Amino acid sequence: MRAAFFNGKGQLRVDEVPATAPGPGEVAVRVSACGVCGSDLHSFLGHWPQPPFAPGHEIAGTVEAVGEGVTHFAPGDAVTIEPLIPCGECRPCRAGQPSACGHHEFISWHRHGGFADQVVAPARCLLALPEGPARAQGALVEPLAVAIHGLRRAPLQGGDTLLVLGAGTIGLLAIAAGRALGAGRILATAKHTHQAERAEQMGADTVVRMGEGNPAEALATLTQGEGVDVVLDSAGGSQAIDLALRAARRGGTLALVGAYPLPPRTALNEVIGKELRLVGSNCYGLVDGRRDFALAIDLLASGRVDPSPLVTHRFPLAEIQQAFETASNKSTGAVKVLVEP
Ligand SMILES: [Zn+2]
Ligand SMILES: [Zn+2]
Q1: Peptide linkage before 155 cis (omega within 30 of 0)
Q2: 30 and 10 in one domain?
């Protein structure tokens, strides 16, 4: 099969590698689409290490073969793959919080990911995609689950004012999911014009432009000085966490989803003085016993979240170099770039 690999800073190559047969409890999935994630771009651009396996963890495809003991899936089934493989044995796993597992594996870091013809994954990582929009947008289930996990971890309550920082894929999906999960009012920040337009398209009531005027003052004015109930930070970085601490209402909650490339320097006294709650949100897993992936599929299947405006580019696997160059150059207007082997 063909599989793409990082090949030094700013470079990818496509190699021919032997296809693996699924072992006991595993399933081989023929990839139909795999999205380029911001974390893939960090590896591509040399900010993060480059895994020795084929990258790609926003995967949709069709079951090709099942290993011994797999009864829930059969060849031909349309599926998406939850790439975080928790150990199932540690304390957080046993307590129903697999996203906090310290011994997990991650598809694309510990085995080949979705920028390849085929992925072999444990059957417990697969979820069936019902016919209709969820199947057509199967590669968007993973980033939607990231956004949903952050909102459910907060937790966002019906009627809450939600502020979403950052208007990349996760932020834009958090806006749409926040709307579907009952937010009363949604504010968002965006750096680029095309992101601001999409934030409104996905359901933000008001978008505050970063780099224009004073965003903290603008948000204070928009909330009559009270602040917002929940801030979901998908942007990461010192500027975002600072804005989050200032924009949250007294007693409000910050759900931290975006990674911080450097340890942020920030006014943590706001946390004490305003009695803020800081909630970390890692990938996805279970909240109240229900998989974030399952809820993401429901929201897509019912049409309550429509991520189709976010898919701006599609490339075949042979053109993965162009796919990554397009995704890392925001002047292309790229939001979600899909690779379709
Ligand atoms: Zn990702
Ligand atoms: Zn574990």
Answers
A1: yes
A2: yes
